[in-house]
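The authors assume throughout that readers already know how a fold can be written as discrete tokens. The format is easy to grasp once an entry is in front of the reader. For illustration, here is how one protein appears when written out as sequence plus structure tokens:
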Amino acid sequence: MSSYSPIRPQRITKAVFPVAGLGTRFLPATKAVPKELLPIVDRPLIQYAVDEAREAGIEQMIFVTGRGKTAIIDHFDTAFELETTMRERDKDMSVLDCSSATPGDIIAVRQQVPLGLGHAIWCARAVVGDEPFAVFLPDELMVPQAGGGTGCMAQMVAAYEEVGGNLISVLEVPHEQVSSYGVIDPGEALAGFGGNLTEVRGLVEKPAVGDAPSNKILSGRYILQPEVMRVLETQGKGAGGEIQLTDAMARMIGSQPFHAVTFAGRRFDCGSKLGFVEATLALALERDDMGAEVRAMAERLLG
């Protein structure tokens, strides 16, 4: 049974966003537009992830990009011509409040070769340095329960401040779906967290259904200690012929505290077309400015 860290862990101020992927599942839309900029109603996917990071107190956003993905960085830059035109025409400027950053908040590094998620994280090693850091997979849209609540990373940071070490967010899926995800081998639940925080005894990337140790899958949010970079330095290729972050994390279990936080909220797999459409409908239905009209529209279409 793991115990609480006797020393308050170092605060999480940096987050890595691996955004170098080609987005082939959304072609032809992603031929010229990064998949991370595809909008859920009127905000791009990457904006939801960055806002979640800011809510959790993270100050520096590190984007691991690839060729053709500079528009992601531009989204968070100041748009002088747009802002000037909107101001002159007396437009509502508040719509731009969430899409800019203060100087130094955004850092971009390049992943020249697509060698997998683990390699993408390793590409940020010089910026991360010797600090613990968060990781966000923007394809995984994590939102609080309807009606309120904190975001996934804010929940993870709260747990991290109690136990330290490494944390991953998990969700339960039907057993027949586990072969598409990283899966944890869960240990005992920690008292005082409502059953939402458990030890992690092992990690398996995309196991066969019969070999999966549980139906708790990794859901795209991590808090990791800097030692993972040194593990990734020598990490060989794993599932899919890529350098897998899951494999590197599995090697760290036993040498550092490792826990899983079951997110009290909702997850949409926006890396798939169906998940993307579901997220758009779900969030549109909750908006005061369009929810009733969207519901009426859906009822008409279902006729």
Notes: The two ends are 55 Å apart (CA to CA). Confidence is low (pLDDT under 50) at residues 1-6. DSSP finds ten helices and 13 strands in the chain.
